[in-house]
């Protein structure tokens, strides 16, 4: 019997083989991962895609969870040093929301940004809105003494993160955790569309629009727009040419060089009667919204004097207390002595 194929059968087999090859080719074009000869530049490595999407998704989810209807969040940054001890700074910070007037519901919009795992776990235990900020291997768990190299580095990492929040379209109030919120501050913050940034000061010069006010980045409200994003970009770019300067000093320097005017920013400086601090006490406890433990060097000193502020507030709120005498804040002795 002849084992060779007939010419017609040979042609059919060749046609079938050609169709199969074409089918494999077109399918591999639709799904590059199925192609053995897929070129490396067609997509990022899977690990890079995973890391980028995890960062985007986790932060976006945290912001969305804490956001008000108008995409405004309250942001505080903490590390382990602020969450440990007999009476941690973080606990005092939260006490303010509990004891303050019309402040408890604001914790629904408070996002705690933890720069180490201990602070993150403490935040999660308290069932707050929490986000774990990775810091590229830097260790920010322990106290970073005012103006130390690590303190300055942590301030710049914070600035970069907050700029990212603005780029995502979120307005925010940033607050240090050494700020006690004794009253809801929103009624004292203008919603005027022409005002982009409202920022606290160490001492108020009497003019809310004057750029000679000594601004303090421990408490401010900022809108997300092209002007404020440009400000944060320019601000962060100065970090490598401003050795030994904290981010607040750099912003003051930029202000004096006219950056607010050049970018067309509306900037309002907050009166210390409403947004006070240890540098300058509020003149009226009946209207004060926040008290900042500024002009103070160490966490221990801040804790001691903020506890006194809590006692002052409780004394003021006590209906049985004699209100005929003028109210006087306790002296901030621990903070005054922290510089010696």
From TrEMBL:
Q: Which residues form the signal peptide?
A: 1-28
Note whether Calcium occurs among the keywords: no
| Domain Nucleotide-diphospho-sugar transferase, chain residue ranges per copy | 106-306
Q: Name one GO molecular function term.
A: transferase activity
| Key word DNA damage present | no
Keywords for this protein: Signal, Transferase
- State the protein's name: Nucleotide-diphospho-sugar transferase
Give the organism the record lists. Answer: Helianthus annuus (Common sunflower)
**What high-level taxonomic lineage is stated for the organism?**
Eukaryota, Viridiplantae, Streptophyta, Embryophyta, Tracheophyta
